[in-house]
Structures are given as C-alpha cells and as structure tokens.
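Re: the request from the purification team.
They wanted to know what the chain is likely to look like in 3D before they choose a buffer screen. I agreed to run a prediction and write the result into the notebook, where they can find it.
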Amino acid sequence: MSDHYETLGVARDATPEEIKKAYRRLARKLHPDVNPGPEAEDQFKSVSAAYDVLSDAGKRASYDRGGDAFAGAAGGFGQGFSFTDIMDAFFGGQGGAERGPRSRQRRGQDALIRVQIDLRDAVFGSEKEISVDTAVGCPTCDGLGAQPGTGTRTCDVCGGRGQVQQVQRSFMGNVMTSRPCATCQGYGSVIAQPCVQCSGEGRVRSRRTMTLRIPAGVDNGTRIQLSGEGEVGAGNGPAGDLYVEIAVANHPTFVRRGDDLHATVALPMTAAALGTSVTLDTLDGDQTLDVAAGTQSGQVTTMRGLGVTRLRGMGRGDLIVHVEVNTPKNLDEEQRALLTQLARLRDEERPEGRLASHGSGLFGRLKDALSGK
C-alpha cells in the first residue's frame, strides 16, 4: 500500500492548506479528461484516495496511527471522493473553506425616499424632519428570530453542517456531491418557535423620524447618502444605506438656472426713462436696485453674490434682474396732453418705423438668447 503523503508529495506534518494545494496541482495534471490513459487514471485514483484521507482530520489521525481510514467505505474510483474538491482543483475554489452552514444575517437593501424643499432651503441649506418607513431589528426577539425564551436547535438532518452529501456512481466511480439542506435551508440550525412578531425574520417594518441635514446648493435630483440608515437585513443583519432625493419646489418670484437666480422687475415708462432706485425683496432680505436713466425693456442688471450657494465650491451665484418697462394705458385728458407735449418736444409725433440692426434692440437680444450668448 502506497504512502498517502508520498503520493501527494507532502511532508507528514504538512498543513491542510499544503495538502489541498498539492492535490489541486496533481488533479489538474492527472485527471482523465486532461491526461487520458490507464496509467494516469490509476495515478489519479491514488491521488484522490490520498487526498480523501489526508483532508479529513479524523481519517488522517487514524491513518497516522496505522489504522484503516477507509474501513467500512464503499470501494471504487477515488473511494468516494468529493466532487466539490475536483471542481476546486480545476477552478480555484476554496474547497471546504466555503462549505458549511450559512449565516442567517444578510446585509439589508438600500432605501430611497424623496423630499421636497423650498428654494430658500436649497440656497442656504437647512435641517428637516423626515419620516422613514424601513425594516428595523425586531424588538421582541432582538433580531434572533426565535420566540423569547427559546432559541435554535441543531438541524437533525445535516447535523449542523448546513449541507447534505450524496454519493452517486459515475464513469469516474463514486462521486460525492453536496447541496444545501432542505430542512434548515443551509443554516445548520432550525428555529423551533419563530418569533410571532417577525415570523423568524429577525426584522419588522417600522416608521421612524430623523433629522436630515440639507447642504446649501442642492438642486432637483441631488441625492444625499445616509450610511447605515436603510433597510436592516434578514436576521438583524447590517443595514443598507438611505438615499434622500431632493425636489425643489417652484418659487413664485425667482427662477434658478445653475447657481444663478433670475427675477423680473416691472417699471413704469417714466421711471425707466428718468432712472430710479427700487427696493427688491430678495432671499437675503431687502436690497436696493439702481435703475439707470433710459433703461430699456429686456435689459438685465446683475446683483453679485445673491444667488445660490455653490454645492461643491466657494461663494454664491448672482441674482439676474430682468427689467420690464410698462407702457401706460387708459390715459386721462391731462396725461394724454402731457405725453403729446413730450412727443412734440422730442419730435416724435410721427416717428418713422425703422428695423433695428442685428446687434441692437430686442431683435439682437432675442438672437443672443437663442444662440446662447
């Protein structure tokens, strides 16, 4: 009878990892699908039999004491080797390190909610109370899934391994396959009395209130990530993340474009012609806007630093004020006489209509707007 250590080419004090590596190397070299022929097949059988003994702590101890590690085992190719070990040899799996009962705990899913804020909150930032409906750890069983006072018991079918093995005959001999235990779903243990509140899940749905800090500069579609505030996983596993998507409500006065705010101020014709100062109710409080004499409808004035705070930068955008000149209607006799006199003084009683050049007037401003200038 050949020595199993010599067959695998390892020392008698070799570690399990060294034995596994030696087996993988030889299995890849000698497998009948790779190296056909009776000699290679016999060597492969010997390698598989040696690994089956030396990879099992109990069999290896018996073998080292001079006992028969295969006593009572069915004969045949590989003496009932594990098919999983063959797959590990070819595809680099971790062998037994990956097998065994799986944990009941799972990481929870991420959650997404949408929160509407007003423009002022987007410009300056704020804090907002929000309600979140997510899964949380079950308070009755503390996430264990079992009714208080009870617990889990080792699965009678798989003996706590979480897997059951089955030996099947094939052209390679007796092949042992493993699959998750159907009785315990691969956990290795069974909850005898599931918690009545969570039905053994270890989590329940609950609504909770939390404070959301909204940074200055957020816009429609901005998502704020709150780590660990999402869904608690099965078995009271680690919670996922909570994402809060921002929706900014329309403002009755201001329109946002990037980091700038736009607003329109209506002026009577006389004020635009003579020039004036007006007080604007901005998001920063009352601000004075100086209107130059002769201001035309459609002209804009920029008020620096009164726009939106830059989310990932320094400073703020601007407030762009668009001037709209109102032409008076429904004139009384005195007003009409005064305007008629003004038209006479300015020689505008019968003005000649002239088309403006491309670079000036309303047409020019319209062209610039359409071209993005």
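For the purification team: The chain is about 25% helix and 30% strand.
Please add any questions underneath this entry.
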